[in-house]
Design goal:
The complex is a heterodimer of chains A (279) and B (138). With 279 residues, chain A is mostly helical. Chain A contains 11 helices and 2 strands, in the order H-H-H-H-H-H-E-E-H-H-H-H-H. A two-stranded antiparallel ribbon of chain A has the order 1-2. In chain A, helix 1 crosses helix 3. In chain B, helix 3 packs across helix 4. Chain B is built from 5 helices and no strands. The mean pLDDT of chain B is 82. Classes of the chains: A mainly alpha (279), B mainly alpha (138). Chains A and B meet through helix 1, helix 3, helix 4, strand 1 and helix 9 of A and helix 1, helix 2, helix 4 and helix 5 of B.
Amino acid sequence: MSPLVFTLDVFGASIVAGGAGSILGLGGGIIVIPVLTLLFHVDIRYAIGASIVSVIATSSGAAAAYVREHLANMRVAMFLELGTTTGALTGAFLAGILSGRALYIIFSLVLGYSALAMFRKRHGESGLDVPPDRLADRLRLHAQYYDEQSGEVVTYRVTHTGVGLVLMYIAGVVSGLLGIGSGSLKVPAMDLAMRLPIKVSSATSNFMIGVTAAASAGVYFARGDIDPFIAAPVAAGVLVGAIAGSRILGKLKNSAIRTAFVIVLVWICIQMMWKGLHG
Amino acid sequence: MNPQSPLKVDRDTRTVERIISVLLRAGVILSLLVVVSGTVVSFIHHPAYLTNGKDLRTLTTPGHALPDTLAEVWSGLLAGRGQSIVVAGLLLLIATPVLRVAVSIVAFLVEKDRLFALITAIVLALLLLSFFLGKAGG
């Protein structure tokens, strides 16, 4: 394979990763890392470096559309970023103290539980029928969005904001420690605890993951893990995919997004359990 | 903003959203253009990349020199090196979310939402802190 063919192939695969990532609120690392290491035999260091770039590209590529269409709840995102950034800092300090393998197993169990709980919610969204939450009222988090699929304006209320913040802190710690999984924990936290509509959870997670990843991207750059030859087609492909994906999210059925997300969660859950048990 | 959108959004919020949306789009388009032109320059400088399979192993295995400090990227840019142009584009991409947080502070102040301006300022401070701590540790 010549470098030209490599560049074009990775560009193509990254379009898919960006599209899927932008619709599910994930960074696309779960697609980019295995594709680069297994199909193209890229060194894992460079694959992880490229996946950090992919997370930022997914986030920024999709966020412009999500903000404009009110799918991403900016106020929720900015408030919860308090938790994720504090968590990421804590994670950086804890690295080396906690055993990576134990963490992978815990992370896997949490994802397994989230997958099950999200699957059980498949018959409907909460909308306005949620317990009152004074913090959400004070922060003016309640909002509405126009659902292209049903052609209706969906008004929703946010609840358990405090719990959500704590969960985001934990998600931040995990991504600071393991360098992964920020979106796969953020979407369930918004869906299960704060009861946001699934499209809003996904778009808001998307909006947030870029900030979390940018914090660690500096480290990867300084370490020389970001290889421009590999990261260039990844960044370009993911951006194109994410811009396209962000136009599709609004048109999809809630149940379809939820099912796809649950399948991906189960897949990551198995991967993490494998890493925890086999090192 | 969707012209037929029947959402009720107050004007201030709409201003903040428009500013952030435009900033994100500009960051994305600019970094995409720079990354793609850097890649094209690389291929023009190294015509062997178009056909020679042996170069690929060198490019995807650790051990070859990469521009990984700002000074190297800058001197590479001045020399018109494709890899440095690509890295400059990637750095623009990385800076976009950080800039988004910074611009949000100003946007919330314009909106006279002091609570959210404060929240966002704390997020920016934490973000910059992790950036510098990470660099020192890495």
